[in-house]
Write a structure and sequence with these properties.
- By secondary structure, this protein is α/β, with parallel strands linked by helices.
- Strands 3-2-1-4-5-6 form a six-stranded parallel sheet, sandwiched between helices. Strands 7-8-11-9-10 form a five-stranded antiparallel sheet.
- Helix 1 runs parallel beside helix 6.
- The longest helix is centred in the middle third of the chain and has 14 residues.
C-alpha cells in the first residue's frame, strides 16, 4: 500500500515542524511558502519545497496539490490568506484538509467553509498533529522527555478479541501498556490475559522511535 502524501502550506514553526517530522518518518512531503528563505530552510528535509502564493488558484492547481492525500494549511498571522487558501483547496477537491486557526472565531469560519479538521497551535503542537496524521488511531501523544512519550491508541479492528499476551506489544515494539480505558473506567496495569474490546483505548509508554513503529503498524 503506497504511503500517504502530504502537502504543508505555511512554513512557520508549526508548519515546518509538521513537515520535518513527516519527512523523517519517510512520507512524501511537499512544503509551500511565499517566503523563499523559509522554503530553503526545509528544502533539504522534505521531498519538494516550493515558493508559491497559496491564494493563487492557478499556482495551487499547477503544483498538483489536490493529488495529495492530506493538505495542512499552517499559514501564520494572515487570517484572510488562511481562509482564501482553504476555500481554493476545497474547490480543487483536496481529499482531507487540516487548517491551523489563530483563535476560536477563525476556527468557526474554517469549519463553516469545509476544513475537515481545525487545529489550534497553542493547544495542538506540530508534532502531535503530525503523529495524528500518521495514525488516526492515536488520540493523544504526550512527550515525557526528548526520548520517551505516552500515547493513547484507539483499538484497531485487528486487536479486538485478543488479549495483551497475544498482542505482545512489548516484544514487538518495546513499548508497555500502562492502562486500558473503557468508557469512564481506567484499568491500570492490566493483566496479560485481559481481552481487548472494540471500545477500549490503550495507554502506552515507550521510546519515541518505538512508539512511531507502533503507530505506523496500526495506521
Amino acid at each position: 500500500m503506497p504511503k500517504k502524501q502530504f502537502a504543508i502550506i505555511g512554513l512557520g514553526r508549526f508548519g515546518s515542524s509538521v513537515a520535518t517530522f513527516l519527512s523523517q518518518m519517510g512520507y512524501e512531503v511537499l512544503a509551500i511558502d511565499e517566503d523563499e528563505e523559509r522554503v530553503q530552510d526545509v528544502a533539504n528535509t522534505v521531498t519538494h519545497a516550493v515558493s508559491a502564493d497559496s491564494t493563487d488558484e492557478e499556482a495551487m492547481r499547477a503544483l498538483g496539490v489536490r493529488n495529495f492525500d492530506v493538505v495542512v494549511v499552517a499559514i501564520g498571522q494572515d487570517i484572510q490568506a488562511s481562509i482564501l487558501t482553504t476555500l481554493i483547496l476545497k474547490d480543487l477537491g483536496v481529499p482531507k484538509l487540516i487548517v491551523k486557526a489563530q483563535n476560536e472565531l477563525h476556527g468557526k469560519v474554517l469549519n463553516k467553509i469545509g476544513a475537515d479538521k481545525v487545529v489550534f497551535p497553542e493547544r495542538d503542537m506540530g508534532l502531535r498533529v503530525a503523529h495524528h496524521l500518521i495514525s488516526p488511531n492515536i488520540l493523544e501523544h504526550i512527550e515525557l522527555s526528548t526520548d520517551y512519550s505516552i500515547v493513547e491508541l484507539r483499538v484497531p479492528a485487528s486487536m479486538i478479541g485478543k488479549n495483551l499476551k497475544q498482542l505482545d506489544v512489548r516484544a514487538k515494539y518495546g513499548c508497555n501498556v500502562l492502562a486500558i480505558k473503557r468508557g469512564n473506567d481506567m484499568n491500570v496495569a492490566p493483566s496479560a490475559d485481559q481481552a481487548i474490546t472494540e471500545e477500549d483505548i490503550l495507554v502506552i509508554v515507550g521510546r519515541n522511535e518505538q512508539l512511531t513503529k507502533l503507530e505506523q503498524a496500526y495506521a
